[in-house]
Amino acid sequence: MSKTAGWTAEDFMGLWAVIIIGGGAFAFRELAIVPRATVGMCAVANAPAICVPREMVLKGQYYGLFGWAALALGLAAFFRAGRFGGAVALGLGVAAVVNYNGTQGILGASLGLIVWLSAMTGRAAKA
To answer: Predicted confidence band at 75 (pLDDT cuts at 50, 70, 90)?
Structure first.
């Protein structure tokens, strides 16, 4: 028996959430963290405003916060069978992998993808 995916408005919002969270993390990394010029700019006494979120992202990356957040949200979506939560867990998992927290991030992303796809195909457990 084959089941086709039924896209709802919540799924399109989830797709946008994945694009915004994952793509935003990638764009921020490429524009604010990767260039060597930002290291020198943020080392001066009067650093630009971009240095504060840059420092927060680097600390979060160092402590693995992106990966643990993706895993926690993926588990929460898996046990609560939340369709939009699964999509956000997938986006946060992509952001975790972009920020080198791939061990837990990929688990959270896969749990989110499982929840999202099972909800789209109608295979999710009805609570």
So the answer is: very high
* Number of H-type helices and E-type strands within the chain: 6, 0
Residue 20 predicted with pLDDT over 50 = yes
DSSP string, 20-35: HHHHHHHHHIIIIISS
* 123: exposed, middle or buried (Cβ count in 10 Å: 0-12, 13-18, 19+): exposed
Global pTM value: 0.87
In whole angstroms, what is the distance from residue 70 CA to residue 124 CA? 20
Give the whole-angstrom CA distance, residue 51 versus residue 57: 10
